[in-house]
Amino acid sequence: MRLQRPDLQQFLLRCLGRAYGEKLGYTAEQLAAAPAGADLGLGCGNPLAIASIRPAETVLDLGSGAGFDCFLAARQLKGAGRAIGVDMTPAMVSKARANAKKAAMPTSSSASVKSRRCPC
């Protein structure tokens, strides 16, 4: 049986849950802070653990998926600055935008960009 990506994500979340996020270095507070559905359980590290994000900065999250790290970065900006999530799949951008709306994150935005065309 071949799992489609959404099925795989749900399977991984059920099996790994928050324990996986904690193994990646996220705190319980960080894991609870992002909107439901933003943490897909597919990350490979915690970039915020080494970033020194300060209010009024602009944060660019490449390959942002459903926006988990982008939302956490937006919280660290404390209403000043901007967190921008970029993903090459329109489905993930739609999911991130829906999550941002659900969580009322005005400093967070998402865009769809083909990785070869990203001007970054």
Write up this protein.
It is globular and about 40 Å long. The longest helix has 19 residues, at 5-23. The protein contains four helices and three strands; from the N terminus they run H-H-E-H-E-H-E. The chain has helices at residues 5-23, 28-33, 68-77, 90-102; strands at residues 58-62, 82-87, 108-112. The chain has a three-stranded parallel β-sheet, with helices on one face. The chain is 40% helix and 13% strand. It has 120 residues and is α/β, with parallel strands linked by helices.
Task: Give descriptors for this structure.
single chain; 120 residues; alpha/beta; Rossmann fold; 3-stranded parallel sheet; 13% strand; globular
Short description:
The protein is an alpha/beta fold and 120 residues long.
Elements, N to C (H/E):
HHEHEHE
Output the strand order for the largest sheet. Answer: 1-2-3
Question: How is the biggest beta sheet arranged?
Answer: 3 strands, parallel
Please give the share of residues in helix.
40-55%
Give Rg in angstroms. 14 Å
Question: How much beta, percentage-wise?
Answer: 5-15%
The secondary-structure class comes to alpha/beta
User: What would CATH call the architecture?
Assistant: 3-Layer(aba) Sandwich
> What is the total domain count?
1
CATH superfamily: Vaccinia Virus protein VP39
CATH hierarchy class name? Alpha Beta
What gap, in angstroms, lies between the N and C termini? 39 Å
CATH fold field value: Rossmann fold
* Tally of DSSP helical segments: 4
Q: What ranges have pLDDT less than 50 throughout 5 or more consecutive residues?
A: none
